[in-house]
Amino acid sequence: MRCEWCGEAEVTNEKGNVYWELPDGTRAITIEQVPVLNCKKCGMEYQEENVINEIEDQLMLIDTKKLNDRLTYEELLKIPKFLKKNYFRF
Predict the structure, then answer these.
(1) Distance separating alpha carbons of residues 72 and 60, to the nearest angstrom
(2) Which of 29, 36, 33, 26 is nearest to 1 (CA)?
(3) Three-state SS at 8
(4) Under 8 Å between Cβ of 26 and 37
(5) Does the residue 57 lie in any domain?
(6) Is residue 50 in a domain?
(7) Which residues, at least 6 apart from 41, have a Cβ–Cβ distance to it below 8 Å?
(8) Cα 87 from chain centre
(9) Cross-referenced InterPro entries, in alphabetical order (predicted)?
(10) Residue 28: how many CB atoms within 10 A of its CB?
(11) CB-based contact 28:22 (threshold 8 Å)
(12) Count of the separate structural domains present in the chain
């Protein structure tokens, strides 16, 4: 796998924290232990598109008013959904 920023081949899979604005824009939360890619050359730490989509879809499909300001990625994905899918993703 190559770094999406600099093209370096030495990219490692790790866990990191991300800060996400809720879909309604009322606040941001910290999501811990999120799968991230870390480039040793340029220092970028980022999420793959499928992880971003999972987080965004889950936040669209749950009651975000009940969320704590901090939770893990696994905890977020285990929260029961209102809808079966994100109808805004085409």
Answers:
(1) 17
(2) 36
(3) coil
(4) no
(5) yes
(6) yes
(7) 3, 6, 8, 10
(8) 19
(9) CHP03829_YokU, Znf_MqsA-type
(10) 12
(11) yes
(12) 1
Q: Which two tokens stand for residue 47?
A: 């999420």
Assess if residue 4 is contained within a domain.
no
Q: Which helix (H) or strand (E) holds 53?
A: helix 49-61
Domain that holds residue 46: 11-78
What does the radius of gyration of the chain's CA atoms come to, in whole angstroms? 14
Tell me: the pLDDT tens digits for 9-55?
Answer: 989 999 999 999 999 999 999 999 999 999 999 999 999 999 999 99
Q: What would the pLDDT profile of 47-68 be if each residue is shown by its tens digit?
A: 999 999 999 999 999 999 999 9
Residue 88 lies in a domain: no
Q: If you search the block for the tokens 């704590």, which residue do you land on?
A: 68
To which residue do tokens 């790790």 refer? Answer: 14
CA 51 to CA 47: how far, in whole Å? 6
What pTM value is reported for the model? 0.86
Residue 21 phi, psi (nearest 5):
-80, 135
